[in-house]
Structure formats: structure tokens, C-alpha cells
Amino acid sequence: MQLKDSLTNLAPLSDEQQRQLNQALSTLNTQQLVWVSGYLYGLSQSGSQPVAATGAVTAPGGSLTILYGSQTGNAKGVASAIQAQAQARGLPVTLTSMADYKPKQLKKETHLLVVVSTYGEGEPPESAVDLFEQLKKGKVGKLEGLKFAVLGLGDSSYEFFCQTGQDFDSLLTKAGADRIHELASLDVDYQEAAKAWGEQAVNAIAATLSAGVATSSVAGAVQAAVGHSQYDKANPFPARLSVNQKITGRDSTKDIRHIEISLEESGLTYQPGDALGVWFDNDADLVGEVLALSGRSGDEATAHGSLREVLTRNLELTRLHGGFITGLAEISGNAALKDLAGDKAQVNALVASAQVVDVLKRFPTELSPEQLTGLLRPLTPRLYSIASAQSEVEEEVHLTVGVVRYPQEDGTVRSGAASSYLADRLAEDAEVRVFVEHNDNFRLPANPDTPVIMVGPGTGIAPFRAFMQERETQGAEGKNWLFFGNPHFTQDFLYQVEWQRYVKSGLLSKISLAFSRDQANKIYVQDRLREAGLELYQWLEAGAHFYVCGDANHMAKDVQEALLDVIAEHGHKSREEAEEYLSELRRAKRYQRDVY
């Protein structure tokens, strides 16, 4: 390789830098080498720094730390963009996930930017929980002298819009920190606003921060460069659907599909714990219904194609948001709709239970193409936990998809946009646009001898199928314990044959099942946790990692309560001591959740 040889002989590099660089380059193929060559050339011409590594040498006037708390990757993306803006100004900057940040480090910071999303009922994302709780309890101490700003991401269709961003702003202020730029609460179409806020925040920080250069290793630059795939959320890979198989029984109340997608020739890589982003088209019948209720044919021209094309591919039709209701009320002049729009509780209830088309059916309004598209929000991809290990399936990716159906009072059935796209509307071998969303906060232990406890009822089983495939490929010696639940054993035991094979081979040490409707008293996974409390606590004391995947609003909370009860009872601890024990597990990345 000429590039490797020429870099090896560069005089400005020390022997250690040459060794690191050669080690990094040895993992690259020809296409990646060409990409890195151009990347490094661009850096040399711009004078920018590729990364701000931990432990970087900074100017004496302080440095900027950007912390992000991300559930789906959006906050991480915004934080990375702001890091690039700061680097372009020559500021010493470090980008860190809240999951990897020690809360007591806050007292040593001089300038801080927080980028954080909100999920569930106004709760912080999983990676932000520990830092949030430490701030909330006042355990980080006083933060006088710290200059900060917060950018919150959220979804205005939910009641607790950007609540976590607001909470971080309030908690930092309460701790004595000085807000240097206004709080931003951004909706799902955040991109332009986030860019503008980042520029303004960096400008405010630059005015109070001595500029300095953050150094990093050459190998770090190469690894950072390689980490950028040519396919991502903005540029998805045109994959092919190869398998769509229903894996619940004929009489099941659930329609759950095993989906296999070919990634051949994509170069995409993923790890157990990652998610697959899926871009989808809205249902043609739904698009037609929205057009008819708006008094439009669909042939009207817009800047992005016909109105029908834009509604099909670019705009959200199934996720209702409060702005649609209030905006439609202003346009229509309908007195009843205006009354509804003025009642926040009614708006929240409607958003939680209805889709765009339901509001239009209830309040038919003729809308111009500009009015209709202005009321709707940009379509966003859906994320699915990956149900396969690449070490096992190579150039494939597997998903476990619960098809969402909403029976209506008039007898019709509304469907989830992405799940019905995969299950009902996408033909075998048809194109589906996908990208990998990495999740470093849901990872198997680095040591394959470490025991693992997995709690995944329903489609929450998906990442644990990937975990077991990976553990089998690794020849992992660590014990594995699965807790799985669903309504009925005969109809809803997902991947039953595979789990039985793992039990027979000894790879799956224990399996605890909770089929809630197979007896008079409903039994759930949290009940099985309590029943096995003593052994469960012994596993934790032996170093086990504990994982939860699935529903955030009910199951995950109930599982955490059961886990706290187990720790308190069998560890002979008070409630407060049990909570601290669980916090320590979280800080050690031994308690990880992928909940939605």
C-alpha cells in the first residue's frame, strides 16, 4: 500500500505515532484508505483538529465540554455538529456521552454545553439518568464559575415536551452555574434551529474562553475518520427485504414479524445492542384519504414533487401533534375545534389516541397545498433493535417487529406507519432504505466470562437474540439468564426453537418465562424476578450485567421496582441503599436499558 508506506516514513511523526498509525491503517480496505487520505488532506488545508481527545492539552483560560444524553442518536448528532463548530473556532473542546462522564467532574469544568433529549413521561434518556439524579440530589456540589447552556430535543406531540432539557437548565442554575446562552427547546424538525443555536452558543463561549488547540493522537484521527460510514440517516442504504415471517400463532392477539434485510455491498457494520433505522413510505390509501378530506387531488405541484408524492415520502401522517390541531383550528374557523384547541388536556388526549386523518374526518377543512404541508411535520425514520449478530448472519440484519394496529369505533383499523410498511406493503426483494444507529449504552460485557441477565418481554427479546448469537460465536463462558414474557405460551413464544436449542447446548443457563394469560392470575416478568430474587441477587454479587429491553412506560418501571425490591430484601438494604446499589450498577455499565 503506497499510502501506508509514505505515511510510515513521514519525518514529523515519532516512532510511537508511526506505530499507532500503522496499526490503525492495517485494518482498512482500499476504499477506506482513499477516504482517509482525502480526509487528512482536508484537515491539513483547513488547520482544523480531527478530534478533541480526553486528556487533550488546552489553553489556560479553560476549555469547553459538550455532554450529550441521547436515546435515538439525535442528541449525539447535534452535539457532534456543535463540537465541529467549536473546533472551527479553534476552541479546546471535548465531546462526551453522559454515560461515560463522572458527575463530580462538573466542579472542574469551566464551560459546558448540554444536549439532551426527553423520552417517556418527561424522563431523561438512559445515558443521562445518573448525571441527572446526581444533580437532582445535589451531590455534585456548588458550581459557581461554570458557564453553561442547554439544548433540549423533544417531540411536541407529547405532553412533557423537552422536559429533560428544562430540568438540566434548572438544576445547573440551582447549583450556582451561570447560563451563558438561552435554553433551546427544539421539536422534531430541529436541524436548522440546532445549527443556529450551536453557532450562537459557541460565539458566546468563545468570548469568554481563551482559544487553544486540543491535541489528539494521529491514530485517533484515523479512527474518527473511519467511523463515518457513507450510509447514514441522511443517506440511507437501499437494502433489500429478504424475509417477512409472522412468528406469532394464528390465534394470537399480536402480529409480530421476523424481518430479514440484506445489507450486501453496503459496508454497513453493527454490534449487538445497535438499532436499525428504517425510512418508509406512508400507506397510499391513507394518503388518498388525507387528500380527499383536505379537498385536494394530489396532483398539485410543490417544491419537492406532487402533493401526493410529498405526503407519501416526506411528511408524517400517523403521528399527530398539538401544532396540527391548533393550526387547523386557526385555518378552519370551526368553533368546536377552536374550543378543543384551547384545552391543553383535550389536545393531549387527542394526540395520544388519534392520527392526522381522524382529526380531518372530525373537522373537515379545505386546505391549500401550502396549508396542508405547513401543518404536517417532516417524516422521521423508525428505529428497531437489531435481532441478529453480524458475526452470525454476516451481510444481513434481522428485526423483530410488532405490527401496530388501532381498531376504530367505525370498524376501520389504523396501522403504525413503519411496522405496516414492513409487514404489509413491502414485497419480498423490494428496496427498503436503512441505516445503522449505534448504541454504545447497550453493550455486552467486554469480558465474555461475565454472567448476563436479560429481561425482554414481547419484541423486547430482539437484542437478546443478537446477544446469544454473539456469545455463541465468541465461545463465551459466562452464564446467561433470560426472562421473557408474552400473553400465551402456545401463540406468543417468540423464537421458541432457538431458545430451546440454547438451553440444550448449555449456552442459556436459565430461562424464566411469564405467559400472563395462561392462568387466572396474570404473571409478568417482574413477578418472575421477585420469585428468583435470591439467585438473582447472587448473580449480581458475582458481577453479572443486567439488561432490560422493551416498553418504557410500564414494563421497564415495573422491572426496576422489582429489582430494587430484590436488592433490598436479599442484600439487607434500605430503599435508599438499594437505589444507590442500582446507581452503582448503572455507573459501572452493569445495568443497561434499551426502552421505548
Structural account:
The protein has 24 helices and 21 strands. The chain is α/β, with parallel strands linked by helices and about 600 residues long. The strands form five sheets. Strands 1, 2, 3, 4, 5 and 6 form a six-stranded parallel β-sheet that branches. Strands 12-9-16-7-8-13 form a six-stranded antiparallel β-sheet, covered by helices on one side. It has a five-stranded parallel β-sheet with strand order 19-18-17-20-21, sandwiched between helices. Strand 1, helix 4 and strand 2 form a beta-alpha-beta unit. It starts with a helix and ends with a strand. The N terminus is likely disordered.
How are the elements arranged and paired?
Layout: H1 2-8, H2 15-25, H3 30-46, E1 64-69, H4 74-88, E2 93-97, E3 111-117, H5 129-136, E4 147-153, H6 163-174, E5 178-179, E6 184-186, H7 191-206, H8 218-226, E7 237-246, E8 256-262, E9 275-278, H9 284-293, E10 301-302, E11 305-306, H10 307-313, H11 322-332, H12 335-341, H13 344-353, H14 356-362, H15 369-375, E12 382-385, H16 390-393, E13 396-402, E14 405-407, E15 413-415, H17 417-425, E16 431-437, E17 452-455, H18 462-474, E18 480-486, H19 489-492, H20 496-505, E19 510-515, H21 525-531, H22 533-541, E20 545-550, H23 555-570, H24 575-587, E21 591-595
Parallel strand pairs: 1-2, 1-3, 3-4, 4-5, 4-6, 17-18, 17-20, 18-19, 20-21
Antiparallel strand pairs: 7-8, 7-16, 8-13, 9-12, 9-16, 10-11, 14-15
Helix pairs in contact: 2-8, 3-8, 4-7, 9-14, 11-12, 21-23, 22-23, 23-24
